[in-house]
Amino acid sequence: MPLNKTISAVILLSYVLFGCLLGLSICNAPELIAAIGFIFLLIGVGTLRLIILWLRSDVFNVLGGAVGAIIGLLTGMVIAWNLPILIDNPEIVGPITGLFIIVPTLIGLQLGATKIRELRERIGKIEEGVNKIVGVLDTSVIIDGRIADICETGFLDGDLIIPQFILQELQTIADSSESIKRTRGRRGLDILNKMKKQAFVKITISDSDYPSTKEVDQKLIQMAKELGCPIITNDFNLNKVAEVHSIQVLNINQLANALKPIVLPGEIMRVQVIKEGKETGQGVAYLDDGTMVVIDNGKKFMSKNIDATVTSVLQTTAGRMIFATCKTV
Predict the structure, then answer these.
(1) Superfamily of domain 262-326
(2) Segment 79-82 long-range contacts (CB within 8 Å, at least 24 positions apart)
(3) What is the pLDDT of residues 211-234, one digit of tens each?
């Protein structure tokens, strides 16, 4: 940031005027007054160069230099406090006092500007070594398993918190007498073991519990509030409740919908009609990402691959649905 020319001129003029007044108070010789004024002009030029240098410097260097200079100034004043008592010659007391004040101030200025840089570098290294908390996982997103694939790609980097009560819930599901629940629970535990081996994220088990709160979802919300981090879930109801509490939610289903390829009306796609639709003559097909395609007059092409022209796309909270007409005759 350049220094304003008017301000520069005022600073120089002030130095010269002060020098001339100082010379006038010492003697009445015009040559000596002019010489002192010139000396203060040079001091003013040096001050301007120092100001310009500081304006170009990093704000932390300026702050560190200012703090160091103040400490040095106070130290010099303490040292110079008793000099008039120790030195009998009053003519040299002033210059020596000024020297004892200026030198510590300059040393403090340099040390402050230098050490603040070292402090910033150390803080930066500490911050690099500490991973941020990505979010708290709930049971649904662990069993779903896609969170492991997302972490494996490196899109998430940091700590994933898994509360102990979520692990207990997974264990309960894995020990269920119902085969479907038991399979889901064991899948969730396998997903956790897989995520533990990944390099980009660190799985942290939290022992925090809230005995006064019975529902697991409420415990998750309370933990997310305390940690100040999002909840990662697939649970639609938990998503809504967390939003009421002003807690950020990372919903894997919403992410999957956002990553689906954009389909515009008029585009032609190759699909296989798998089953009948709800309306007469409709056929239903699915894209590779699971998106349902409803095809008018597609029933007669059951189990066949056909070309379908997109007519409209319906986006809902549950996902996306494409409506198309049969192009194959």
Answers:
(1) Nucleic acid-binding proteins (2.40.50.140)
(2) 79/104
(3) 888 889 999 999 999 888 999 999
Question: In a 3-state reduction of DSSP, which class is residue 293?
Answer: strand
3-state secondary structure 203-267: EEEECCCCCCCCCHHHHHHHHHHHHCCCEEECCHHHHHHHHHCCCCEEEHHHHHHHHCCCCCCCC
**149 half-sphere exposure, CB direction, 13 A CA radius:** 8
Six token digits for residue 299: 């029933």
Q: Which CATH class is domain 133-257?
A: alpha beta
pTM for this model (two decimals): 0.52
Q: What is the pLDDT of residues 273-304, one digit of tens each?
A: 999 888 888 999 998 877 889 999 888 889 88
Domains of the chain: which residue ranges?
Answer: 5-128, 133-257, 262-326
According to the 3-state scheme, what is the secondary structure of 81-115? CCHHHHCCCHHHHHHHHHHHHHHHHHHHHHHHHHH
